[in-house]
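Narrative of activities, Objective 1.

The group set out to show that a structural description can be obtained from nothing but a protein's sequence at a throughput compatible with the screening campaign. Below is one input-output pair from the validation batch, recorded exactly as produced.
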Amino acid sequence: MGSQPLADEIRPQFLEDVVGQEHILGRDGLLRRLIESGTIPNLIFYGPSGTGKTTVANIIARQSGRALRRLNATTASLADVKSVIADVGTMLAPNGVLLYLDEIQYFNKKQQQSLLEVIERGDVTLIASTTENPYFYVYNALLSRSTVFEFKQLTARQVRPAVDRGIDLMAARLGAQAQVDEQVREHICAACGGDVRKALNAVELLLSSAKREQGKLLVTIEDAQIAAQRSAMRYDRDGDAHYDILSALQKSIRGSDPDAACHYLARLLEAGDLISACRRLMVVACEDVGLAYPQIIPIVKACVDAANMLGLPEARIPLGDAAVLMATAPKSNTGYAAINEALADVRAGRTGDFPRHLQNIHADSAGMEREQGYLYPHDFPNDWVAQQYLPDELVGRVYYRYGENKTEQAARLYWEKIKGE
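Output recorded for this entry:
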């Protein structure tokens, strides 16, 4: 037993012992009721690693009496799937097979399509798991034949019972009393990022390497910080977490919350993703602050340039300045909305010919420019004169609407005075 990973040794055997996931495994949870009914459909478990997906699949297999076969889509092939099916009806799997396919997003479309004939057999139940959104990564025909359940990230409080059990079990393994104070336990729970497996791996490492004094295993907060450092980060530059952090950063700045903006920026920078941080901050400057503070665009560009010149960790300083400045700046998306409306018209074919007086005079023969009728605004008072600019089909179309901020309202008043509106 000593060679078995701690996380596997204390894996729950009953639904009552699974931590978290009350929304699906609580007393009235739909997944719990399905498991207890004994009628198990094909399932897709979606959620972060270390949240109980494999554990629940094990419990389902045991309670249904089916042989559990595990494959990981990163390394498995269709030949492996067929090998599993070959066991059905034999002494190896007399009651059928529960096929647990981890990381199904790594199966291509053809491989996923081939699973259809597997799940339509009554003696094979498929439970596929993924850390990515299945509605983006799983083939539609497979989704339509399965029931999707989302496993949510665990809180530090939910991880705590597993950490305490792990400490006790490791102490028993090592034949000594574990001296792990409250601060250390809390740090392990918080630093694991809601991943029970990471937390238990940290416990196993810390207790195995702990100093022995008078028959006690001493675990210090310094050791815990080293063992669990950066493990709270959930980040994959091509995965959902990447886009979730970028979205949260932009929405926090848009919502004028500088504290949340700094938090999500810090998560990007801690993951070393300087490029995404810089690009998203430039997007925010143009889209969300925009014309309410037009100087924001060159200011943020200067911060981004400085960050790229400095590199990490110093890049955090100009980027932090940019995030806080934008979060506390007035907001306007009027320019963003205007170009989007204009693009919608163009894409819908609402264009029309250029007004004759706006066409390029250099394309005309000598003297034709006089017949265009173009009025040169700089020849008129205040550098403005009334004339048509939109195509005939779009005359009167309004894309830009002044925002309710000081800068745009000042521009509105200026032009109303000039145009005599």
